[in-house]
Amino acid sequence: RAAEWSEHRAPDGRPYYYHAGRGESVWEKPQALRDMEAARMAAHGATPQPTIAPTPTLVPSMPPHLMPNPLMHMQAPGTPTPYADPALAYVQAAAAAAAASSLKQVESANKTAQVSNVTEKEQKKKTEETKSKKEDEQKKSAPPAKPVDKSRPISSTPISGTPWCVVWTGDARVFFYNPSTRTSVWERPEELLEREDVDKAVSNPPEQLKTTVTATKTDKEEESSGKAPAANSTAPISNNTTKPESEDDMQEDDDEDDTVIKIRSESESSVEEVPAKKLRMITKSTKKANASEAAAEAEVRAAKERAVVPLETRVKQFKEMLREKDVSAFSTWEKELHKIVFDPRYLLLTSKERKQVFEKYVKDRAEEERKEKRNKMRQKREDFRKLLEDAKLHGKSSFSEFCQRYGKDERYKAIEKVRERESLFNEFLLEVRRREKEEKLQKKEQIRKDFLEMLRERGDSLDRHSRWYDVKKKFESDARYRAVENSLYREEYFQDYMRMLKDEKRKREREREKEREREKEREKERERERKADRKSDRRDKERRSDRSRSRDRDRDIKESREKEKSSKDKAENRKKHDDYEEGEHSSNEDTEDQSANEHEDEEAERLKKERDRQLRAEQSIREREKEVQRTLAGHLRDRDKERELHKREEAIGHFNALLADLVRNPDLTWKEVKRQLRKDHRWELVEFLDRDVREKIFNDHIENLMKKKREKFREMLDEISSLELTSSWKDIKKLIKDDPRYLKYNNSDKCEREFRDYMVDKTISAKVDLKELLKECKLITHKSIELVKDNPNHLKEIEDILKMDKRYLVLDHLSEERTNIVLDYLEELQKRGPPPPPTASDVARRK
């Protein structure tokens, strides 16, 4: 049937035809539509001309029924948006197109011929052209109107019995708003389903939209009638047929039976008239029937496809659809629904699965976008840093100069925020300044090393008593001498070299002294070894003699015992023969008794001597043991002292490390720092030190910090090229207020005091340089003071020559003192007298 087909236009303008019942689209015009067109042409008395649809070039992977349907996305003003079910919305859109095509049959049955007058049309066209020209002139002369945001709400209709309101926006869209919960949704809530008052509020747009829609339609009709001839005005019925929404805009009274709607035919310029009420009834009934039927068919097809296709595949296709439709990762389901609801892949999942997959996709996509954003930002910063490197900046470069020079570079524009650009610029500039400072220090140190090497090469002519004034002329031709720009630095390096010579000499003397001490120790050790050897030899001899004496003593004791035994035997024999030989042996007996007594006395004396010898040996052994113990005690004491000294040095090292880590502010006191140090675990290692020693080390550390800070501060002042001896602290403070070396001084008074000390030292240095300049001036001799007294202009001549040197001009603010220095030097030269001849050898004279 022709009513089941509807004609549509593709995005490129080609017509195609859609069957609402079967849900398919074709490029060629169906036979039913051709027959209906032929019948209509016959009714108007015209010969039907078959229309051959152009054969489009289709992508093989995209059948015609998957081509985008413009009517699915178009919505006339005042059309109620079906938000309850997205699937139903999809099929209802298709059914609406089918219902529009069904009007053709009604028109063919009720239409009457109406021929328009060509002359009247031409006159009307001229009138409209004149009117449009005047309107264009008025628009040009009038000020430009401000753009109106059509997405803003223009009307709100509360629904009785519910907290919901129906809200219309300026672009003819409807949403539902709950003031109590501050919730806005596009889909119709459950409590508003199947309510006539809600349907009426959704279908009837406000007066503002009616006026806008009517004016828009009138303009479009006038433009179409003015541009195209009446005989060739062919358009799809779906575009010229009055929509159900426009029908709802009319009054729905029963007295409007005579109201007719003019519908333009596709093939000719005649107008057909159809009763409006009858047309509305037919359209509504057809729409409801087709919508319910199509929704059921779509749901059945989707259920069958869900049963066949695995869940993983469906989820994958659904995610691909979300990616193709460019669904925002930071939006909500309700806001993104209109992008995906008309896609066939929308029905691959159930309602619950859709939302779950959508939430997971949004979460993953948000993380991906954040990563991409971070990577892009990192790449932009790297490119900006590369631009900074290519710019070849130096320590005095400014951000404004950089912006003027590279403001048109794409790497510069990639960083949008000016503050971020300036921050990256400042970070890079800090690195550049630090690098320049290191290079400057390295260069200065290298110049110093070269200068010392030059002095070392001429070391034969220098000793620790040499003076810089006497030897500097020997080095003036050397490039390493000229590399040091300031004469004060040259003299300072020379003094350093002299100190190095003295230190080396002291070191050599200490080495020789240590070597002599070591030689003495070795000699003493050898002497002790020799004494020990002699003593051991004596002890061995004594032991051998003791052993021999003990053997002799044992032998003597044994012999004496044998003698006593033999004497006893003889005595017994004598007693036995007393009676017989008493008279004969009386004289012999007295002699034997006397000899025995003498022998016993000798034996007793010998035993006494032996005991005395043993006592002396034991006494000597005890004395040797005492001497060994005394020597060993001395060694132990030395070892204990070395151990204590080592522990002390180790504790001092730990304490210095502890102070270096925790104490970096020289303004702290020992009492304040001690509490903080006790909390550190390394405090146990330094408790070995006395309290006074710890406090002394702390004071040394604070002095070292103050010295470093002072050196940094003075180094900062040296870098100021505009600094002069007359500069005030107020002016200098403005130049250094952003320097971190100044910010380290928490107190401005301390900075000012340090600045004054610096200026005093700089003034003293300037006076020393002036004296050095006077020594270098060849015009000044020992006779100059006499010449000045005779002719005061001679002093002016000397000053004119000295003014050519910066060392003289620096002291302009101390002109009187400077003049006194010059006069004092002249008087000193006069006291010295004429210089010695080159052949003079008296060192004292040359001094």
UniProtKB/TrEMBL annotation:
Pfam families membership: FF, WW, WW_TCERG1
Biased composition annotated in UniProt, kind: Acidic residues: 246-258, 589-604
One annotated GO molecular function: RNA polymerase binding
Keyword set, alphabetical order: Coiled coil, Repeat
UniProt biased composition (Basic and acidic residues): 1-12, 119-140, 504-588, 605-629
Limits of the FF domain: 311-364, 376-431, 444-500, 648-704, 705-761
Alphabetized PANTHER family for the sequence: TRANSCRIPTION ELONGATION REGULATOR 1, WW DOMAIN-CONTAINING PROTEIN
Protein name: Transcription elongation regulator 1
Organism: Glossina fuscipes
Organismal lineage: Eukaryota, Metazoa, Ecdysozoa, Arthropoda, Hexapoda
Primary gene name: LOC119639305
